[in-house]
Amino acid sequence: MRDIEAYKQKLLARQRELDVRLHNIEDQLDDEPSPDTEERAVEREDDEMLEGLGNAGKEELEHIEHALTRIENGTFGICVECGDEISDERLEVIPYATKCKKCM
């Protein structure tokens, strides 16, 4: 039998980790720009990279929130395409997976 509580705890831990990371990214993006023109160009490149990381983090948070909802409504670990169980091996790697290996 699948240990849903273990997956829930894993998802909640990752959610907390991402929350901290996203707040750090926001803080870095809010820093005052350098008055030096060359340094500002580097800062802009860094900001673009941080924004990309932030967007990826927000997307992962959405997946986690949906997985937590599926846990609450009893559909966690069930493929949204075919209705088969998603393997524990897949859920260990991607605990918010919505599709089994054959439907990916």
Walkthrough of the structure:
This protein has 104 residues and is an all-alpha fold. It is built from three helices and no strands. The protein has helices at 4-29, 37-73, 88-93. The chain starts with a helix and ends in an 11-residue tail after the last helix. The model has no long low-confidence stretch (mean pLDDT 90).
Write the layout of secondary structure elements.
Elements: H1 4-29, H2 37-73, H3 88-93
- Strand tally is 0
**Average of pLDDT:** 90
Secondary-structure element order, as H and E? HHH
Low-pLDDT parts are none
Give the % helix.
55-70%
Query: Structural class given helices, strands, pairing?
Result: mainly alpha
Strand content: under 5%
Cα shape: elongated
**Biggest beta-sheet profile:** none
Distance between the termini: 23 Å
Gyration radius (Cα, Å) is 18 Å
Number of helices: 3
